[in-house]
Amino acid sequence: MSALIITVGLEAEPFSPEEAAARFRRSAEGAGAIVHFIGLVRDSASSEAVRGLFLQHAPGLTLRTIEKFGIEAAERWHLQRADIIHRIGEVGPGEPIVFVATAAAHRRAAFEGADFLMDHLKSEAPFWKKERRASGDVWIEPRAEDYADKARWT
Amino acid sequence: MSALIITVGLEAEPFSPEEAAARFRRSAEGAGAIVHFIGLVRDSASSEAVRGLFLQHAPGLTLRTIEKFGIEAAERWHLQRADIIHRIGEVGPGEPIVFVATAAAHRRAAFEGADFLMDHLKSEAPFWKKERRASGDVWIEPRAEDYADKARWT
Amino acid sequence: MARLLYYGPLSDLAESGDVALPDAVRDTGALVDWLAAEDAALGEALRSRRVRIIVNDVVATGAHPVTDADEIGFLPPFSGG
Amino acid sequence: MARLLYYGPLSDLAESGDVALPDAVRDTGALVDWLAAEDAALGEALRSRRVRIIVNDVVATGAHPVTDADEIGFLPPFSGG
């Protein structure tokens, strides 16, 4: 299993998930199934308007951690390819914050690989998310569900 | 729950899943999570080269059946939108044969809605698939896994 | 004339089209018996437990009534996506 | 000089940067004690069971050795995607 089939990008600027999807499909020739996940910044928190997010990461460590999850997913589900793009820095409402793509021979592998990657990006990758609310900035902790979701894979 | 949030297309010509994805994202404003599944025609069967597929459907019944699954998924996972595009007729190797998109507030709903729709499209929607192999045409039956996958939802 | 629609592998065995049903054919069981008498191979295929019969787009279970005004589909196992 | 890196909510409490460690600070436990003596609020936050300490990108469990040549990160719970 070569690490070359995993592409990880940390992007400080807005990106187009559809362009990423087109590149991914070209790179996954011969696959029978592709799954994409796109996470978007919602414009409201539980009760309040959100003007955007700020995403802190740990240079080096964040990239290596995500690559490790990518390789784990690729080996576990025999993925043909996996791409992960994650925004860093300031992200505006409605903007894509994360894009995960998996390609495999059959659909269950592609679904489960993408699901696994998202669960690990949510609670096991070194990112710290701050919501820019009207009333001030608030650091966000993973929800209990995020830990529970991740525990499904162990 | 309005049926207007479900779009179903049966396409006799090749389509771009990335263009479908872009339209879908524009229509799903405010969603926090989008999942796409793209099924592609593989160029080989278990042992033999495949020159393409022929997909028969039952006009009217096929569309209504898929719409019913779409509404079921939307209600069960509180989807904001769901789009389903399925090719009919002749489909060439490497071409997208099915596109499913789901949009929801959170990722588990989007993942499970798309997964549910694909499992039902595979074994519960009126399509009949013929592989055009070098040695002749072969009608394909769902695999045992396809029935098992579908049974996960009941 | 009833409209008989054959799908998937069944469409290789018989051609879909309009057929005048004999008076004796008043339900799906009698219909299959009649078609089997005309074409034994088709009859065997239609009698598979796995073939669903739909009458005017409604799944017919057991001996469902049929008339000359109906559209009757024979649906072998589906294989989509 | 050791490099201390504070992430997430911890970055609101202390600024990341290079620090000369006293001779007595030879492991992560002593490091946290020393930082807590300087800033009680920071000390309390760093002592949370949920803060991971990494030394040169390796997760440090227990009293991990530290020297003036190390990069030491304090990582509160992650929230990505």
Determine the structural class of chain C based on helices, strands and strand pairing.
Answer: alpha+beta
Rg of chain A is: 16 Å
- Overall shape of chain C: globular
Q: Please report the total strand number of chain C as a whole number.
A: 5
Q: Which band does the percent of strand residues of chain C land in?
A: 15-25%
Strand order of the largest sheet of chain A: 1-4-6-2
Q: What best-fitting shape of chain A do the alpha-carbon axes yield?
A: globular
Structure description:
- The complex is a heterotetramer, with 2 copies of chain A (154 residues) and 2 copies of chain C (81 residues).
- Chain A is built from 4 helices and 8 strands; from the N terminus they run βαββαβββαββα.
- With 154 residues, chain A is α+β, with helices and mostly antiparallel strands.
- Chain A has a 4-stranded mixed sheet with strand order 1-4-6-2, with helices on both faces. A 4-stranded antiparallel sheet of chain A has the order 5-3-7-8, with no helix packed on it.
- In chain A, helix 2 runs antiparallel to helix 3 and helix 3 crosses helix 4.
- The mean pLDDT of chain A is 92.
- Chain C has 81 residues and is α+β, with helices and mostly antiparallel strands.
- In chain C, strands 2-1-5-3-4 form a 5-stranded mixed sheet.
- The longest helix of chain C has 11 residues.
- The N and C termini of chain C lie far apart (34 Å).
- The model of chain C has no long low-confidence stretch (mean pLDDT 94).
- Classes of the chains: A alpha+beta (154), C alpha+beta (81).
- The interface between A and B is medium-sized, with 33 and 33 residues.
